[in-house]
Amino acid sequence: MDESRPTQPARPTRPVRLLHTAAALREEPRGTGARAVVMTMGALHEGHATLIRAARRRVGPQGQVVVTVFVNPLQFGAGEDLDRYPRTLDDDTELAAAAGADVVFAPSVDEVYPGGEPQIRVAAGPMGTLLEGASRPGHFDGVLTVVAKLLHLTAPDLAFYGQKDAQQLAVITRMAADLNFPVEIIGVSTVREEDGLALSSRNRYLSAPERRTALALSAALFAARDRLAAEEALRARAASTGHAAQDRAVALAALGEDRAAADAHAVAYAAAGPPHGPSVARAAARAVLDDAARLEPPLTLDYLALVDPSDFTEIPDSYEGEAILAVAAKVGTTRLIDNIRLDFGAGRSGPAPAHQDGTRTDAAPSDAPATPPPTPQGPLGATR
Question: Does an H or E element contain 342, and which?
């Protein structure tokens, strides 16, 4: 089975309209409800279908869902995969229709940039220079420029983006707020394949051995999530036992109950000091990625970062609240990214809930190990 192929939902009762020009899109009746846009670079898969279905649910039968398909040259740097990025418009149109789209807007480069590369662009600011922006200078300026243009061309009430591209979602949300775009930006949870790998158009580039190594990205994130949950469980127990935990540990050790004593010592350690959540999450993820660097083929880490969602700066060990653990790495010639949201504070960590349509999100698949092993076993323009 080709795991890069999307799962096809049931077909709608109305056909999708495929448009190629801004003039044709302006002439398209909007209907009586809200208009939602899902921006993509094509090569659509189940992750995109989830976005389209979410848009369809939100606007209802009287609304309109527009899917843009445009491979944006501005967001590709030198040596990146612009030329080999998959173009599958016929399949994309079919999937978009089946997921509930009304219109597929697939303009040419000349249609979006009629005067050639634009002299005036949208700058992503400080957030755009971190992580993905540091690895790919100018990337987010290209993303925001095309997002701004497509928002003007499609004039939506709502725009849907995947949380897999967390930094992209953050800079788009900030642009819309800072520049007063009259649109609501909505993030939709990451969709994963059965083995935990985040869905991406680039997954199809991976050979079977490369895919086994690539599982380390999601495995590292799940390991951090599970380690954080274990620490918070210890802290919850410590809060209920207090100083008695240390006395119990000493007594058990004296009786030769080593395993029980070790457990009691762990509870006592949790009671004695401040939360260590960020440091243990980083360490758990790093251990998985270090192991994957020794596989064949190896995983080459670009970054592992635990950041504040508001500005994508690294959080301190004393941080409390929601954070994003993000990872980027190469396997062979394919660069992949992934992330998971963690909540730092006693009793608040855990996997994200399933999507309301039943699609698995950031949680590990229910029929797979909580931390899939990294070794063999098993947006507009920017969304991938």
Answer: strand 334-344
**Catalytic pick from 48, 139, 265, 355?**
48
- The mean pLDDT value for 149-178 works out to 97
pLDDT for the residue numbered 14: 66
- Is residue 189 a contact partner of residue 161, using CB atoms and an 8 Å limit? no
Any idea what the Cα angle at residue 367 is, between residues 364 and 369, rounded to 5°? 55
When pLDDT is averaged across residues 161-178 and rounded to a whole number, the result is: 97
Nearest residue to 283 via CA among 218, 228, 229: 228
| 13 Cβ neighbours under 8 A, 6+ residues apart | none
Q: Look at the block and give the residue holding tokens 């006395």.
A: 247
> 355 and 49 in contact (C-beta within 8 Å)?
no
Select from 81, 1, 79 the least CA-distant residue to 41. 81
Q: According to the model, what pLDDT value does residue 259 have?
A: 52
* Cβ-contact 306, 248 below 8 angstroms: no
Question: What is the tens place of the pLDDT at every residue in 183-224?
Answer: 999 999 999 999 999 999 899 999 999 999 999 999 999 999
For 205, the token pair is: 């580039």
* DSSP-derived 3-state class of residue 139: helix
Task: For residue 206, report the phi and psi dihedrals to the nearest 5 degrees.
Answer: -80, 135
Q: How far apart are CA 204 and CA 172, in angstroms?
A: 27
Helix runs in the chain, H state only:
22-27, 46-59, 89-99, 109-112, 132-135, 139-154, 166-178, 208-241, 244-254, 258-272, 277-292
Assign residue 61 a region (left: φ > 0; alpha: ψ between -120 and 50; beta: otherwise).
alpha
End-to-end CA distance of the chain: 21
SS3 per residue for 142-176: HHHHHHHHHHHHHCCCEEEEECCCHHHHHHHHHHH
Contact yes or no for 113/381 (Cβ under 8 A) = no
CA pair distance 98, 90, nearest whole angstrom: 13
Contact 37, 68 (CB under 8 A): yes
Active site residue 48: yes
Q: Which pLDDT band holds residue 374 (cuts at 50, 70, 90)?
A: very low
The pTM for the full model equals 0.79
pLDDT for residue 357: 37
Q: Rounded to a whole number, what is the largest CA-CA distance in the chain?
A: 83
